[in-house]
Amino acid sequence: MEDHLAHSDTDEHGAHAGPEAEASSHEEHSKGRHEGHSVADFRRRFWISLAVTVPVILISPGLPFVPSGRIVNVPGADWILLGLSTFLYIYGGMPFLKGFVRELRDRKPGMMTLVAVAISVAYFYSAATVLGLEGMP
Fold it and tell me: Which of 41, 55, 70, 107 is the most exposed place for a label (fewest CB within 10 A)?
């Protein structure tokens, strides 16, 4: 029992962690850079986004090694792609977009900023080509 008591007063590195350190550690974790992140949420978003990505690939133009340019030809494919891509950008990208806002608010840009900028540039450029901008969709 003494072993258990001694172990419960140490942190993961074996250092003594008193009540103040435990409270501070819990506060840092709950209000840190990973606030609001949930493994279950990321997992769900990943699988749903992956499922929506399949039709995006099937009807996307200009695929290499595809003689006709698209695996599946459907009328209005560019508009369908825009709709599916908008869903992917908003639904799949939401954790990164929220993290981007949080990092900017804290004036500490990091990985969420990098990912949010990357997906935003790709999405808005692609959307602009569907809406008439000259360029490769």
Answer: 107
Of the candidates 75, 85, 86, 91, the one whose C-alpha atom is nearest the C-alpha of residue 53 is 85
* CA angle, residues 32, 34, 37, in degrees to nearest 5: 140
The dihedral built from the CA positions of residue 52, 53, 57 and 58, taken in this order, carries a sign that is negative
Q: Report the Cα 127 to chain-centroid distance in Å.
A: 19
- For 104-115, write each residue's pLDDT tens digit: 999 999 999 999
pTM, full prediction: 0.70
CB 59 within 8 A of CB 69: no
Instruction: Give the domain ranges of the chain.
Output: 1-31, 36-130
Task: Please state, as a whole number, how many other Cβ atoms lie within 10 Å of the Cβ of residue 83.
Answer: 12
Over residues 122-134, the pLDDT tens digits come to 999 999 999 999 9
**What CA–CA distance (Å, rounded) separates 70 from 65?**
10
Pull the structure tokens for residue 50: 């992956």
Which amino acid is present at 108? K
* CB-based burial, 104-123: b 16+ in 10 Å, e otherwise: eeeeeeeebbebbeebeeeb
User: Which residue in 24, 116, 2 sits closest to 11, CA to CA?
Assistant: 24
